[in-house]
Amino acid sequence: MASRIWLGGGMNFASSPGDWSPSGVPQIGDTLTMTSGTMNVFGNDLAGDTLTVTGQDTVNLSNATATIIALPAPETGTETQSPAPLIDIAGDDTLRANVAAATIDIFPHSVWTGSLNAEFIGTGTGIFTEQLVVEGGRGSAFVNSSTSEVIQNIASIDVNVLGIGAFDLAFGSLEFGKSVGAGQTVAVAANGTLHLDDPAQFAGTVSLQGGFVDLANMAAADSYSYADGVLSIFAGDTVIDSLKLINATTAQVEVTKAGAILTAYLGTVPGPGALPLHT
Questions:
Q1: End-to-end CA distance of the chain
Q2: What is the pLDDT of residues 166-201, one digit of tens each?
Q3: Is cis: bond before 22, omega within 30 of 0?
Q4: Which of 59, 80, 207, 221 is deepest in the core (most CB within 10 A)?
């Protein structure tokens, strides 16, 4: 087992022995670190080892399997941090991403299968001003196949989310810009906010344990109901949206409206802009 540091050079292939110090391709059990540059990873080039990325680096995955820890260090006592890395995904890739802040770009018609852990690191008391961004081209998708976490951080996922898995959200925000499949459950805990840019495309389940759920494009909403684990939003007598919402009772669920945004939360006292129960 060796501790290898990425040097790069030439074609920047992870499989090039001379691009590592000490020279040699990754072997099972190696410790891999990248502090700068670009790395192109194919297949099992990293030998199952974890790659720790500490700067504004670029890792290009192509039909690869990887575990990446991206830990750009925050400034002590603040919410700022050093520049975040870029992870490009092409083809069908398996990635476990432990990334406090990064951009993960999924190429058109490419699929990322795995999980993410976007958790605040460092000694500051706030959340990062930078965030984890997952974006992609036409036909791209994230198959969340286990439990992903957004803890004291900001994350936005603007690709379709598929598979059977879960998201744990607390003391931060998670935004879905595209569709979320029925196999996903999002647990929203204390001080967490789940943003649904297109509620009609969210087929998953929300376990509301605290925090808030924001639903966009609800300008027509004028009342709501909650029964049998389903939050229904009405315009007149027509249901314009519904959300699978568990761990709540009718007496606990409140919904407020501000412009075209609805916010659902657990409470017993209606807040400003409260919608009435549908009758």
A1: 68
A2: 999 998 899 999 999 999 999 999 889 999 999 999
A3: yes
A4: 59
- What b/e string do you get for 121-159 counting C-beta neighbours within 10 Å, with b at 16 or more? bbebeebbebbbbbebeeebbbbbbeebbbbbbbbbbbb
3-class DSSP state of 143: strand
pLDDT higher than threshold 80 for residue 77:
no
* Cβ proximity of 179 and 142 under 8 Å: no
* C-beta atoms surrounding 212 within 10 Å: 17
Dump pLDDT digits (tens) for 13-71: 999 999 999 999 999 999 999 999 999 999 999 999 999 998 889 999 999 999 999 87
Residue 130 near residue 81 (C-beta atoms within 8 A): yes
pTM (two decimals): 0.90
Which amino acid is present at 70?
A
* Tens digits of residue pLDDT in 93-135: 999 999 878 899 999 999 999 999 987 655 455 444 557 899 9
Pairing of strands 184-188, 50-53: unpaired
- Alpha carbons 182 and 198: distance in angstroms, whole number: 15
Give the torsion through C-alpha atoms of 265, 268, 274, 275, to 10 deg: 90
CA nearest 166: which of 178, 192, 190, 148? 148
The rounded distance, in Å, linking the Cα atoms of 256 and 169 is 21
